[in-house]
Write a structure and sequence with these properties.
mainly alpha, Arc Repressor Mutant, subunit A, 7 helices, 3 strands
Length: about 150
Amino acid sequence: MTGEPTKADYQELAEFRYRLRRFLQFSEQAAQDAGITPNQHQLLLAIAGHPDRDWMTPREIADRLLIRHHSALGLIQRTEKLGLVTRFAHPTDGRSVCIALTEKGRALLAELTTRHERELRRLGLSDRSLGSSDLSVLGDTGGEFHARTDRRHG
C-alpha cells in the first residue's frame, strides 16, 4: 500500500474482519454441536486438506495448527479416543508416526464442511462469492491480511 489508508480501506478491512469473526463463531459452535472441540475440527480439516497425502505427522499438525508439539500430541490422543483419527507407522521415519482420519472422522468432517461451505457463502466469504483473486488478500502467510494494492493504489 502506498500512502495513508483511506476510509474505504478501513471500511473494507472492518467488514472483512466482522464477517471473519462471525464465521469463526459459527465454526466453533458447529464443532461443539457435532460433539467435538474446535481444535479437533481443525485437526480433522488439516489432515484431510493436506495437499500431498491423506495423513500428517504430529510435527506437521503442530506447525499447521500453530500449537506446540506436546499440545498436538494431546489433541491427537483425545481425537483418537473418539475414533476420529488413527495412528500408523511412518513409512520412512521409524521415529515418527502418521495420523490419518478414520471413516468416522471423514464422515463427521464431511458433515461439518458442508455446513461451513453454506455459511461461507451466506457471509460472502467463499471463493465462489468473492472470486479467487479476492482471496489473494490472505496470501500464503498463515492468514495474515495483505492490502490489495493492485486495485486501489495502482
